[in-house]
Amino acid sequence: MTPPDALVRVLRGAVDLHCHSGPSPFPRELTHVEAAEDGDRLEMRAILVKSHHHITVMDLLAMRDGLAKVGTRAFGGIALNSQVGGINPYAVAMALRMGGRAVWFPTFSSGRHIACHPEGDGFPTAAVPVPSAQVDFTDDAGELIPEVYDVLDHVIEAGALLSGGHNTPELITQLFTAAKERGVRRMVINHPNFVIGADPEQCLELVGLGAYVEHEWGMYDPQGYRKWDPKQLMDWIERIGPEHTVLASDLGQAGRPRPVDALLRVAAALLDLGLPERDLQRMVRDNPSFLLGLDD
Question: What is the pTM of this model?
């Protein structure tokens, strides 16, 4: 798909904070190098590649030669699912000190995700069967376990991004409250209306703690896998405000559109609905650039 010149101008410098390129135990449409090359079609500034299973920083280091030829930079991080030992400060320290930029609290190992997807380890479709277990980060009294504070300290040391993962709004609020008190500067709640089940009022509470609300453009793509109405996304943007909103792809899975193709369609739809170009740039370029620490 050839990007229209007008959209290239608006979207130039975009940053995708939720790219599911590979390798991964789940089937992937793109490698990390191919995802960065895809970003070059829009002169994207960067992508953040995410795996539910392993530290993506190591993938990127192994692909260093290929990535050096691409204009779009690629960054990695760690998701605190059972495959890395859950809330594991040692794995977090290694990932961030090796150049990682993000820590996602449990995604498919969260109790909330498991309740929404009881089919288990095969979510969404496993190319390689990988055993997993639920990861909790509160104790029997409902208090955050000590390891959480160690993880937060590593996030602060690295100036990294903290994601609430696929947890309930209440748990994410508890986590982000502690993170703010500790001194974390960059926080995001991913796809609040998918799995997590957060409403706008709960998201505004998180915004009050300094968090950004991330919506996935892959879910609003008319050729995508969910095909939600872009008007619904506009409603969220108007309620939360573009200054507190981030748009990211959540794409890279086998059989789904390439991130840039989906962004072009969703961006065009939002502009047609009356979204100002400046607000779109804020959500796809400025806010994610801050969250990834690109201007520090």
Answer: 0.95
